[in-house]
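quick one before i forget lol
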Amino acid sequence: MSFARTHIAFKHQLSIVLFMFAVITFVEIANSALDRSLNIHGILPRSSDHWYGVALAPLLHGSAAHYGGNIVPLMLFSFLVMQHGIIRYFLLTLTVTMIGGSLVWVFAREALHIGASGLLYGYFGFLLVAGFVSREFKLMLISAVVWFFYGGIVYGILPTVPQISFESHLFGFLVGAVFGYKWGGVAVNNRPKPGYPHIPR
C-alpha cells in the first residue's frame, strides 16, 4: 500500500468531518438520555470482558462538558490531518484508536477510560511531527499553527488530574507522533532525485 498523499476535494473532506461529528454527537445524545449507562462499554484495563472498549471508548463521554471539550478540536484536527492525505487519515484514525486503546487496556490504571481525547492527542502528535518531517511549506505551517494555538494541551499527557485519563492522552500522542515520523516524509522520499530519470513502476 502506498502512503503517499492522496487528496480528495474539500467538500468530501467536510463530509467526512461532519459524519464523524454526527456519529459522536448521536452517541453523546443517546448516552445522556440513558444517564451515561453506555459508559460501561469503555476501556476497563486488563478486563477480558471489556476488550471491545478499545474501539468504543472514543465515542463515549462522561459529561456534556467532556464531550464539548473534545468535539471542536477533534473536528479541526481531523480536517488538518486530511491535508496529509485521505488514506493516511483513515489509517491514522484506525491505528490510534486500536493501538493506542490497546496500550491503555494493557498499561493504564484500573478505571474506566472513555472519551475521544486519545484520538485527539493522536491527531495532535501526528500533526506536530508529520508536517516538519515532510519539509513542505503548507504542512510545516499547519504544524506550527497547531503548536501555537494548541501546544498547551501537551501537558495533558502528564498525570496531573486523577479524573483525567492521561494514559489515553499519552499513548494516543505517542502513536500519532510515531506514525507522523514514519509517514510524514513518504511523499518527499518518493520524489525522483535531481539528475536521475523517474522510471514508473
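fyi The radius of gyration is 18 Å.
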